[in-house]
Amino acid sequence: MSLADVASLAGVSPGTVSRALSRPDMVQPDTRQRVREAAERLGYVANGAARALAMRRTATVGALIPRFGGSSFPSMVQALESTLAEHGYTLLLSAPDHARARDPALLRTLLERGVDAVALLGSDHPPAFHAMLAAHPRPCVRLWGAPDGPGPCVTFDEGAAIDAIVDHLAALGHRRLAFIGGRVADNERARWRRHGLLQAVARRGMTLADDAMIECDYGFREGHVAMQALLARRLPVTATLCGNDYLAAGALSALHAAGWEVPRRMSLAGFNDNDFAPFLQPPLTTVRVPIAEMGERAGLYLVDALAGRAPAAPALLAAGLVARGSTGEAPRG
């Protein structure tokens, strides 16, 4: 089955078929649909190796997105993949556990596959990564990294997001807080969140003592165990902030099991606004982070760069408080 057969069935030229399958953004939607239907009907599969050799491109983008327990990265990756697919690019994803996230072999493998562009999670990468990208230049974008890091980055204002949740708790009369967060040694986002929280609490004259902070992996079970540990310490805290909603959901379960009413006896808040947050009991107060939008914007940035359009540096995205039933006025006395 040849490209000419697809062209004949779709009623277009072979060149149009080639563009519809390799650069769909260059073809009108109705024509593109006819070509795809014809290709599917005939079972046509393009010779990717030959096309890559002729075009000197593979129409692939490599992404290195490490896993950190229960996280929101799948939503970001899905948005990145969907955006790239709309413009004819296939995403090659490397998703190692965090212990292998800095292994240069991960990026080297993507480059050896001939990816046209690269997307990296965060800003904290080993020198070998920078050396490889300098030796093999191609469009590269970072997601959820430091805005002032090397190269373009699609991210949001972490400081403003933390200020929003701390302001919310302060307005409810909370002065002594606890924090359950990710491990700062191997997760730059966990480091930013903890550092930003300590600064925000200090500016408002609130208290977040060392023994009221617990580091753990991100996950429901980990949040449950961490909250059990906090309750065992009998600390005079009235609100607990969690580094993400998975931790908060686990913490909420531990509070229920211990007979602590939320929010009458303890207010609880999370981060990210995962899809389950409104359905917890009580519904979880959290900060909505533009996770999917980061993936989409990163995809569009790379598409523009690959098309030679010199995209502007990505602007900071907005994050905002979502107040629900898990936070309330601080207990008196």
From TrEMBL:
GO molecular function, one term: transcription cis-regulatory region binding
Span of domain HTH lacI-type: 1-55
UniProt entry tagged with the keyword Transcription regulation: yes
Keywords: DNA-binding, Transcription, Transcription regulation
CDD domains per record: HTH_LacI (cd01392), PBP1_LacI-like (cd06273)
PANTHER family: HTH-TYPE TRANSCRIPTIONAL REGULATOR GALS (PTHR30146:SF109), LACI-RELATED TRANSCRIPTIONAL REPRESSOR (PTHR30146)
Name of protein: Regulatory protein, LacI
Organism: Piscinibacter sakaiensis (Ideonella sakaiensis)
